[in-house]
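Students often ask why we bother encoding 3D structure as a string. The short answer is that it lets us treat folding as translation between two languages. Here is a chain of 247 residues written in the first language.
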Amino acid sequence: MRRIAVPLAVTALVSIAACGSSSSSSSSSSSSPPPGSPPAEDAGTTGAADTGATGDASSADGASAADANVDKSAGCVGTFGTAIGNVGFARFDGTVVAVLAPGNKTCPAPNSTHIVVELRFSGAVYRMVIDVNDLGAAGTIHAHTLTHAMVGGPWSDGWHAVPLDYAATLGLHAADFQAEPTAAGVAAITSALEIGAHVSVFATAQGENNSAHLVHRNLTNQDGALVVDVDGPSPTWLLLAFANQTF
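And here it is in the second language, the structure alphabet:
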């Protein structure tokens, strides 16, 4: 497993694809996030968490520079699905439709402090909302990236009741995460998400019919994550935690 820093101007490209899982199944469990989770993250159409990047920053080439100039918000939609409000914590498997940077004003339902990934699954588009600003450390995120087999079976369009725990499932602890500038995290996550690619997002959907949040260290067996390269043999996991969390 690797942890890397990715500066804003040097993003790492990640290929994304698909992998198969069980058919859509609900899981309904969610509670308050642990200390260190920004309050806005759970509110209305604001926030969730997620960050990191894969590969060594020094390996970026012309292709990744070109990718950084692509407007991945261009395909954003104005109508969202309404079926996930009571799902709770789950693995959401879908296809990337758009990626909105914090503060994006050109698309519906933007967020000033979180990345919004518009993901299509189960016949509709939903918002995966990713926190990129650590409470008490404005302008930074705590990130870790590793290569690890998919948890809960292969990718399969829809949502699936799959528990995830950074420590118990992935063998990670707070010391494995490193603070990175928010700008670098936004660039790395955006670069890793290819439009039309399959990804998996471990997140909590509760209280909003069209959005899932808490894509970061959260609760036992309810830790959020963004997983790319899901069609290949070695998925890449982009993980987040907050400075005052211990695990």
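Translate back mentally: The helical segments are 62-68, 166-170, 182-192. Keep this in mind for the problem set.
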